[in-house]
Amino acid sequence: MRFVDEYRDPAAARALVSYITELAGDGHYKFMEICGGHTHTIYRHGIEHLLPTSVELVHGPGCPVCVIPMGRIDDAIAVSLQPGIIFTSFGDMMRVPGSQGSLLGARARGADIRIVYSPLDALRIATENPDREVVFFAVGFETTAPSTAATVLRARSDGVMNFSIFSNHVVIGPPLRAILESTDLSLDGFIGPGHVSTVIGQLPYLFVAEQYHKPLVTAGFEPLDILQAIAMLMAQISEGRCSVENQYTRCVTEAGNPRALAMMDEVFELRPTFEWRGLGYIPDSALRPKAEFAPWDAERRFEVPGVRVEDPKACQCGEVLRGALKPWECKVFGTACTPETPIGTCMVSAEGACAAYYNFGRLHREVAVTMGGVS
Amino acid sequence: MCLGIPGEVVELLDAGRHLAKVDVAGVRRNINVALIDDEGVVPGDWVLIHVGFAMAKIDEAEAQSTLETLRQMGQAYTDEMQAVVGSQIA
Question: Considering only CB atoms, which chain B residues are within 8 Å of A118?
Answer without folding.
Answer: 31-32, 51-53, 87, 89
